[in-house]
Amino acid sequence: MLLIQKGPEPRTLSASKQSGLEEFDAVPRDVKQAIRDALVDEQRGLCCYCMRRIDATAAGMKIEHFESRANRDRQLSWDNLLAACDGATGGPPEPRHCDTLKGDRPLSISPLKQSDLRALTYSRTGELRHGTEALQRELGTADEPGILNLNGETHVRNRQRALLAFRDSFTKRHAGHWTAEQLRRELSSVESGGRLPPYWGIVRDWVQRQTAKHSAG
Fold this sequence. Notes:
Low-confidence stretches: none
Structural class: mainly alpha
Number of helices: 8
Mean pLDDT: 92
Number of strands: 4
Largest sheet: 2 strands, antiparallel
Strand order of the largest sheet: 1-2
């Protein structure tokens, strides 16, 4: 996960609510598409949970309600809407994850809160870790999917590949010799653009660790 900074809700959604719209199932098709576009833009093209690539189409993402739609007062609250991947909606061979597995279950860790994300780190093997045992169980482990199943085999493998690709590209461009400042500039360059690369969280974590290590040295 990376911190999601919510922007303003789409004007068409605001207008629809002002006209009496109260339930998500009644959202017009064009308004729902405006919601997808805005969510994908503010999340830089990544799933709110696993950080795989998503697209602003009905097939390319799901509109996730962080708090269950059972809470009718929150169905159309912009700060309750996120963009998630399909979560292996079709089932096997990929185990379900993210919103598809979460369903209506409450989640204690939020991608909207910096304080919730500070304790997130990544292992060398690509596992997402949290310093709090209860929250780790929600994220999932190699043995138990938890609520989000973010440490399933597919996600761990894809994180490893994302980090390896970044490290190889960066190292080659600097002939194997680089400074902490060069690494910081690389991070800033990527994050100042539009969409982020898939599974960017593990790359960001590695960059921060490396710059801190080299700065201390």
